[in-house]
């Protein structure tokens, strides 16, 4: 199989939550072609199930200028943070919940044609209420509602849920629960987790919050 060697890379944009670089890549036949890549920290999402329902958040997304139904989720923007610890924090911040039992549902790549973003989706069960921090920015406008598994699946099929991460997680999570599967181990290596931007930010001395350029 062909080795897609990178001859050179150029950083075109470096902003808080994304960066853009241009790689010169050797194609089959020897031609060198440019490929623009959106760098990302990676993210986590949480399919929290109380035995009957799951919480979904409705959040404004400026890219599409709409409020979208999504799972609780967050960016892996703390250097070397374990994805499970990030998921626990995001679940508390967005829903005021904690979970005793955690497992892995799926890892997914959102837009592999141009973006490094990958997402680890966790199943959280045995839920309890905890103190929720004061929300900021878009999260201050966030709506939280609970839906049965069938209601969530039907929302996907009716086109009411269009966020790709939510669609993948709801359909796989519902299938997992209906089949009696408990999910995979949270210790499974997150091999798809992006490293380009994180390694560059760490080298610049950013660790607690790599978004703060």
UniProtKB/TrEMBL annotation:
<dbReference type="GO" id="GO:0005829">
    <property type="term" value="C:cytosol"/>
</dbReference>
<dbReference type="Pfam" id="PF00293">
    <property type="entry name" value="NUDIX"/>
</dbReference>
<dbReference type="GO" id="GO:0019693">
    <property type="term" value="P:ribose phosphate metabolic process"/>
</dbReference>
<feature type="region of interest" description="Disordered">
    <location>
        <begin position="179"/>
        <end position="213"/>
    </location>
</feature>
<dbReference type="GO" id="GO:0006753">
    <property type="term" value="P:nucleoside phosphate metabolic process"/>
</dbReference>
<dbReference type="GO" id="GO:0047631">
    <property type="term" value="F:ADP-ribose diphosphatase activity"/>
</dbReference>
<feature type="domain" description="Nudix hydrolase">
    <location>
        <begin position="39"/>
        <end position="169"/>
    </location>
</feature>
<dbReference type="InterPro" id="IPR015797">
    <property type="entry name" value="NUDIX_hydrolase-like_dom_sf"/>
</dbReference>
<protein>
    <submittedName>
        <fullName>ADP-ribose pyrophosphatase</fullName>
        <ecNumber>3.6.1.13</ecNumber>
    </submittedName>
</protein>
<dbReference type="InterPro" id="IPR000086">
    <property type="entry name" value="NUDIX_hydrolase_dom"/>
</dbReference>
<keyword id="KW-0378">Hydrolase</keyword>
<feature type="compositionally biased region" description="Basic and acidic residues">
    <location>
        <begin position="198"/>
        <end position="213"/>
    </location>
</feature>
